[in-house]
Q: What sequence folds into this?
């Protein structure tokens, strides 16, 4: 379909406005943890219960919890954080097949553009916790790994939960990506698998033990150029 230059210009302005509004809404919410997972997992599933527990522990430990704001494990993340003492954030994406954000959000923001939403997940996160999920979850994981690997984003803990679920991907990354020289073997160390919710919180605190959660000036400058 033909789109005029005027329409394209207005679209660019809309994207800029989305970035600016989201940045203003999330300002001051650090330290935060972005928590991802499938939108298709229902309440009552072990993944749901574990996600909710992880989010509650993170929230009670002082971390703002950021999720995609939708159903499934995103809802579990918001539900757990909502019951805790720190903010529960939902970065919702407007999709035709989803009803909208879940009800367990202290702060919510609706995005039209996936790339703007993904930037906000990375920009404000002091850690990524990745539950089992589908293409969207893999997309977020890959985005963070790429930005950290290339030095566009600061090094943060990237924690996978569910060894049985992730083991095939990890084996493939070791044998095919690293084995054929597509990545350095050391890049595999950007990810770690941790099963117990308490151990996840402990690992994040340990990572920042000597450096603090606040990004340095150089790190803030890099984040402006994601």
A:
């Amino acid at each position: 379909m033909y789109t005029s230059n005027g329409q394209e210009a207005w679209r660019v302005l809309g994207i800029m406005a989305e970035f600016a509004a989201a940045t203003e809404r999330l300002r001051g919410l650090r330290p935060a943890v972005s928590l991802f997972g499938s939108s298709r997992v229902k309440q009552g599933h072990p993944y749901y219960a574990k996600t909710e527990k992880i989010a509650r522990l993170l929230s009670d430990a002082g971390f703002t919890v950021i999720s995609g704001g939708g159903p499934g494990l995103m809802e579990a993340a918001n539900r757990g954080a909502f019951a805790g003492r720190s903010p529960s954030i939902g970065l919702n994406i407007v999709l035709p097949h989803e009803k909208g954000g879940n009800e367990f959000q202290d702060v919510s923001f609706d995005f039209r553009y996936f790339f703007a939403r993904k930037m906000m997940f990375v920009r404000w996160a002091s850690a990524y916790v990745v539950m089992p999920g589908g293409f969207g979850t893999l997309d977020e994981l890959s985005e963070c790994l790429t930005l950290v690997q290339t030095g566009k984003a600061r090094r943060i803990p990237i924690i996978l939960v569910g060894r049985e679920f992730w083991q095939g991907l990890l084996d493939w990354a070791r044998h095919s990506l690293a084995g054929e020289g597509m990545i350095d073997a050391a890049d595999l160390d950007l990810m770690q698998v941790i099963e117990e919710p308490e151990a996840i919180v402990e690992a994040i605190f340990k990572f920042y033990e000597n450096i603090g959660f606040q990004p340095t000036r150089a790190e803030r400058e890099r984040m402006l150029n994601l």
In short: Residues 10-223 form a domain with the Rossmann fold fold (CATH 3.40.50.450). The CA atoms of residues 32 and 63 lie 5 Å apart.
